[in-house]
Design brief:
Blueprint: H1 2-15, E1 29-34, H2 39-51, H3 53-58, E2 63-68, H4 76-83, E3 89-91, H5 99-109, E4 113-115, E5 135-139, E6 141-142, H6 153-157, E7 161-162, H7 165-177, E8 182-186, H8 203-210, E9 218-222, H9 231-239, E10 246-248, H10 256-261, H11 268-281, E11 286-293, H12 300-313, E12 317-322, H13 340-363, E13 369-377, E14 384-389, E15 394-398, E16 407-415, E17 419-424
Helix pairs in contact: 8-9, 12-13
This protein binds 5'-deoxyadenosine and iron/sulfur cluster.
Length: 425
């Protein structure tokens, strides 16, 4: 979501005449799009802002802006105004379209300008400079009503709001016309899409509509909450040929007691049943997840339940996080916080287990011919191309750069835990 917001900010800045630079010393405008989901990301912002002080002294006309969800709750914007007075503009996730006027206000007054009022509406999407010429994000909803007890997002991004299907389809049709092959539908909880619309429609029906758009070859979506993942969605995924056989389904923790404390509203058994249904109806499906280690009160037995789920589901990918205490959330008030060194050890055990499973899953791809959307040259070797399979696996193979943006078939000949190698067919 943040990356997608950055694409919109980039568009606005280019319209105003700015061009991108790789060198911070050359910049006339520096902007940080922040995230406050975990403390580390927040601390990094303060560190970076601090290190800009000498540069701002040298170049007083340079504008420094900070935006994103860190500005929308808690004390960050006050701290920045008090301790980082060289910051010129502060705004939130729903003020992106106001950026030109915020810049003008700053230039005409010389003051620090702050705007975090809810202004941008989900149906009025801002144009963007997309990072990719053939893979695009499409926002379908904002906000979250779930209030998982560890999570600050509902406080920062506000309540759920769905974009109309007409507006979504307009954007997808436009992307198809521009040659886009793959789209990822974005929302904090896409499975509850449509509930706030005057003519409610379900997420599976939205998928069915988008599946008909000619030119789009692959559809993905992020993020699904297990409590809202319906049988109809599994049917839609199975029946829509463009919807990739891949799902990101965060389970967060394996222990039912911890899941309850997290307010996740499903049990381990509910989750495993969902996985079983998904694997039955969509035989080649690959699964990824988010897991939190060290939630307040997590015991060794609770953690073993997390490992058990990982072993049973056999994920292909996963994001693992050490619990980070976020002021303002319910979990931050719990007085049984887990010691950092215990969380750290559990985290390492979890990673070991997951990387082993990723390795074994990738081994199963050996000898198969997989469809790959070629994204570009590999970072380390210019002669090697990289792309992703429908199952979101990264593949490296030798090929000509003219293949970038095309769908090709690659026979898999090698692998590690995180990627596959192969030969172009
Ligand atoms: N601490 C650690 N991880 C968190 N996440 C959300 N809040 C926290 C927190 N306080 C993780 C969840 C979520 C992902 C986007 O970030 O796993 O799915
Ligand atoms: Fe946070 Fe839970 Fe909402 Fe995801 S569903 S954004 S983890 S509150």
């Amino acid at each position: 979501m943040n990356e997608h917001d950055s694409e919109k900010i980039a568009y606005i800045l280019e319209k105003l005449g700015y061009v991108k630079t790789d060198k911070i010393e050359n910049a006339d405008f520096i902007i940080y799009n922040t995230c406050l989901v975990r403390e580390n990301a927040e601390l990094k912002v303060y560190g970076q802002l601090g290190s800009l002080k000498p540069l701002k002294k040298e170049k007083p006309d340079m504008i420094i802006a900070v935006c994103g969800c860190m500005m929308q709750t808690g004390e960050a914007k006050e701290i920045i105004q008090e301790k980082y007075k060289h910051v010129d503009i502060i705004f939130g996730t729903k003020n992106i379209s106001s950026l030109p006027s915020l810049i003008n206000r700053h230039l005409s007054t010389g003051n620090t300008v702050v705007d975090i009022e809810d202004r941008d509406l989900i149906d009025n999407q801002i144009d963007m400079i997309r990072e990719h010429p053939f893979i695009g994000y499409v926002n379908i909803m904002t906000g979250c009503n779930n209030f998982c007890t560890y999570c600050i997002v509902p406080y920062a991004r506000g309540r759920e709001d769905s974009r109309s299907p007409e507006s979504i389809l307009d954007e997808v049709n436009d992307l198809a016309k521009k040659g886009y092959k793959e789209i990822t539908l974005l929302g904090q909880n896409v499975n509850s899409y449509g509930k706030t619309l005057s003519n409610p429609i379900s997420f599976p029906d939205l998928l069915r509509m988008i599946n008909k758009v000619e030119g789009i070859e692959r559809i993905r979506f992020l993020t699904s909450h297990p409590k809202d993942l319906s049988d109809d969605l599994i049917d839609a995924m199975a029946e829509c040929d463009k919807v990739c056989e891949n799902l990101h389904l965060p389970f967060q923790a394996g222990s039912n007691r911890i899941l309850k404390e997290m307010n996740r509203k499903y049990t381990q058994e509910d989750y495993l049943l969902l996985v079983k249904k998904l694997k039955n109806k969509i035989p080649n499906i690959t699964l990824s997840t988010d897991i939190i280690v060290g939630f307040p009160g997590e015991t060794e037995e609770d953690f073993e339940e997390t490992l058990k789920v990982v072993r049973e589901v056999e994920y292909d990918q996963g994001f693992t996080f050490i619990y980070s205490k976020r002021e303002g959330t319910k979990a931050a008030t719990m007085n049984n916080q887990v010691e950092r060194n215990i969380s750290q050890k559990r985290f390492e055990r979890l990673l070991d287990l997951m990387y082993g499973i990723f390795y074994k899953n990738n081994e199963k791809e050996l000898g198969k011919t997989l469809e790959v959307l070629v994204e570009g040259p590999s970072k380390n070797n210019d002669e090697v191309l990289t792309g992703r399979t429908r199952g979101y696996k990264l593949v490296h193979f030798k090929g000509d750069k003219s293949l970038i943006g095309k769908l090709v078939n690659v026979k898999i000949t090698g692998h590690n835990s995180f990627s596959l190698n192969g030969d172009l067919i």
